[in-house]
Structure to design on (222 residues):
C-alpha cells in the first residue's frame, strides 16, 4: 500500500467524522483507532480487480452479495466499542476479515463468525497470511453468538439484523458494549450502541443512519 493513499483515506475518514458529529457526538476518533486503520493493508482484503480502489473511503463488493465496509464506518464502529488492550471481542459477520484485522491491533482477542463458507475460508487465509494471531474465525450462523468464549467485553455486528438477538446481549459482560446496525431488508437502518450496566440492564442509543447488507441467517427472522 502507498503511504499517500493511506493518508488520503485517513483524511477522508476524519472529514466524515467531523461531518457526522451532530449525529454521533464524536468529532475525532481515538488516535489508536486511526493508527490501527493506517496499519492494516485494506487492499489485501479486496478482490484483485478492485485493489486500485482499496484506499477509497467507500464500501466495495467482495463477492457472495457481501461488501467490505467503508473505512469511515469501520473507524466509527471500532471507536464506539472503546477498545482496550485486554478486551475480548466477538464479531458477528467476518466478511472479508478487514474489521477483525483492525480490531486485532487494539484488543487481546477477536472471535469472529461468518455464515458464508467461501468468505469464512478466504478471511481465515488472509488473516493467517498477515500474521494476525489473535483472530479466530468460525463458519456458521451467528444468531446464538459464541457462548463457549462468552462473556465478551464488546460485540460488533457488521451486517444489518432485523432485531438485536437476545443471545448477544446475554453474552456481553457488565459494562460491555454492543455495536449493531438494525433494520429489516429494504427499510431504513440505524446503527445502535447498546451498553450493559453492572446490574445487567441495557441502554440503547441511535448513532447514525446507515446502509448495510442484510444478514442471511436467523438474525433476520423473528
Amino acid at each position: 500500500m502507498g503511504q499517500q493513499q493511506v493518508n488520503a483515506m485517513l483524511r477522508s475518514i476524519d472529514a466524515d467524522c467531523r461531518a457526522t458529529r451532530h449525529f454521533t457526538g464524536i468529532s475525532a476518533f481515538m488516535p489508536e483507532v486511526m493508527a490501527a486503520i493506517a496499519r492494516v493493508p485494506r487492499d489485501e482484503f479486496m478482490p484483485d480487480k478492485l485493489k486500485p480502489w482499496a484506499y477509497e473511503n467507500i464500501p466495495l463488493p467482495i463477492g457472495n452479495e457481501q461488501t467490505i465496509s467503508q473505512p469511515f464506518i469501520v473507524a466509527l464502529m471500532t471507536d464506539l466499542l472503546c477498545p482496550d488492550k485486554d478486551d475480548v471481542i466477538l464479531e458477528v459477520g467476518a466478511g472479508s476479515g478487514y474489521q477483525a484485522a483492525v480490531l486485532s491491533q487494539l484488543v487481546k482477542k477477536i472471535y469472529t463468525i461468518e455464515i458464508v463458507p467461501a468468505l469464512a475460508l478466504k478471511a481465515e487465509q488472509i488473516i493467517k497470511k498477515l500474521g494476525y494471531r489473535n483472530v479466530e474465525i468460525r463458519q456458521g450462523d451467528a444468531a446464538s453468538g459464541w457462548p463457549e468464549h462468552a462473556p465478551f467485553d464488546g460485540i460488533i455486528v457488521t451486517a444489518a439484523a432485523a432485531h438485536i438477538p437476545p443471545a448477544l446481549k446475554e453474552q456481553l459482560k457488565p459494562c460491555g458494549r454492543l455495536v449493531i446496525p438494525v433494520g429489516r431488508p429494504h427499510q431504513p437502518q440505524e446503527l445502535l450502541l447498546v451498553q450493559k450496566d453492572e446490574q445487567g440492564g441495557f441502554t440503547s442509543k441511535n448513532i447514525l443512519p446507515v446502509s448495510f447488507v442484510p444478514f442471511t441467517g436467523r438474525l433476520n427472522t423473528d
Observations:
- The chain has one domain: 3-220.
- The first helix runs from residue 3 to 19.
- The chain has seven helices and nine strands.
- Residues 3-220 form a domain with the Rossmann fold fold (CATH 3.40.50.150).
